[in-house]
Amino acid sequence: MNVEILTPLLDVLDILGVAVFALSGALLAAKDRQTFVTMVFFALMTGVGGGTVRDLLIGAPVFWISDPWIAFACFAVALLTWMTPTRWWEGKLLEFADGAGLTGYAVLGAAKALSYGVPPVPAVLMGVVTGCVGGIIRDVVAGRPSIIVGPELYITAATLSAALCVLGEVIGLPRIPVWIAAGTAGFLLRSAAIHWKLALPAYSREA
Amino acid sequence: MNVEILTPLLDVLDILGVAVFALSGALLAAKDRQTFVTMVFFALMTGVGGGTVRDLLIGAPVFWISDPWIAFACFAVALLTWMTPTRWWEGKLLEFADGAGLTGYAVLGAAKALSYGVPPVPAVLMGVVTGCVGGIIRDVVAGRPSIIVGPELYITAATLSAALCVLGEVIGLPRIPVWIAAGTAGFLLRSAAIHWKLALPAYSREA
Amino acid sequence: MNVEILTPLLDVLDILGVAVFALSGALLAAKDRQTFVTMVFFALMTGVGGGTVRDLLIGAPVFWISDPWIAFACFAVALLTWMTPTRWWEGKLLEFADGAGLTGYAVLGAAKALSYGVPPVPAVLMGVVTGCVGGIIRDVVAGRPSIIVGPELYITAATLSAALCVLGEVIGLPRIPVWIAAGTAGFLLRSAAIHWKLALPAYSREA
């Protein structure tokens, strides 16, 4: 499979996904009262971090090195954040947009890994990495608790999307409907988690 | 040299090493009262982190991307941790098992680097990276002080094993006995450090 | 373009740059009263971190894996730090040396990225990554606030040097004078920032 043949549509989705993650990085920097330069750095790290780690792991050329528009998109998002009040962006809408980016990227990352010949189980993990690692890098550099350390249904939603995408490929279903269904299922789970504040049970055995 | 020719034995040792490190990651998540999903993530990061960084640095295909059993092993370890009390696993036995994983991996990492044509000094470092980096990533993501920031004889034991492995190769000794001796020497040093709480002296000059 | 043809001079500059960064890592470990082994680790991570991430991103062989002198230089710097009082090294002189390393590396990193066919915008970013990422890794592993989270004109100086280097290449100016001018401009900006404690304005809108 070659992801490239879907280029026109996927490229637009790709830049939208990067932009949503970049926004969450730039907003964190704004709330910490950082400078514009720090904002750009956080927008970049959060926007391209997950896809970068995926590409390094599967041995693909790193996606934003050859495509200058992706760095431009992160810069533009940081500029927009700099020039506007953070309350314009925060709240439920951002959470849902982040959820769409998360699960969309999980599907895209799993599909890209499969197209590079990665076996099913690691391919699911590559989808999860693509969706989650940008946010982990953002939190580690900012010195705050990472989203993966908590009971939220966040990684779980990315895993659902990536696993459905790989499952569809393994049993030979047509790609586009599988991708749409996989992304939608993960997004619905994430949306339900945001709306009803669903959480996974924590480890609770006596030591 | 091709590490692959020793495949049947090395593969088993490899999965055992990954499993020991994965266990230390999953236990940390259990003690922090995290969810099962977070446990799996920590088991994976800790289990495959060191070997992943080594493979990226020496330009080898990342070992767990093409071999799905390694991700399975991390998942199984997380599941076992989830279903059992942490006291079953903690204590001296885990420390010694971790020491065996550390020094075994230091040998394996140095040998793999040599087999990719890496010169002796960086090859020793690749052994140390293979043994230590998984634990560093685990500690950084969990937001706690890293094992490398402390006086314990931990990196030192890994360095001893990796250096002896490379030294044996440089002076042309047969590989298998060198590997066994190198791993044993490092493991004895680490065991002595655990038993007698040995520590290196800290920098103590007046500023 | 092949950076290699300038080897004799660039190699010396390269080792000097690594040594300056390694010194800042070893000094941080000394001030935290760490052991010699931890000092070596911090010297290495800080010295080679930025160039390593750049090489991984642009698909180049990692520079210190094939050249054992670079690891030696980090080791020697750690040894020197261990055997001397930290006050010999700290203060304004180290800050200016760090500024020279930062901006020199930004030029070198951008030039190397261009030589690997990276387009202008990502090439500027590769220069910034080469100069800044070693310090970010050092701060994250040490668990202290990163230099990029603050108003200092640090990343900005690296960006100026990298951008001038790429601009000169794009409009076809001769390489050596451009590199010297680009490095000097960034260094003067960084020196002014150190001397007059210049800082960028922070995000200050009402939420």
From TrEMBL, chains A, B, C:
Keywords: Cell membrane, Membrane, Transmembrane, Transmembrane helix. Pfam families: Gly_transporter (PF03458). This is Trimeric intracellular cation channel family protein. Belongs to the UPF0126 family. It comes from the Bacteria. It comes from Aurantiacibacter aquimixticola. It is a multi-pass membrane protein. Residues 12-84, 96-167 form the Glycine transporter domain. The chain crosses the membrane at residues 12-29, 36-57, 63-84, 121-141, 153-172, 178-196. GO terms for cellular component: plasma membrane. Its main location: membrane. It is found in: Cell membrane. The lineage of its organism: Bacteria, Pseudomonadati, Pseudomonadota, Alphaproteobacteria, Sphingomonadales.
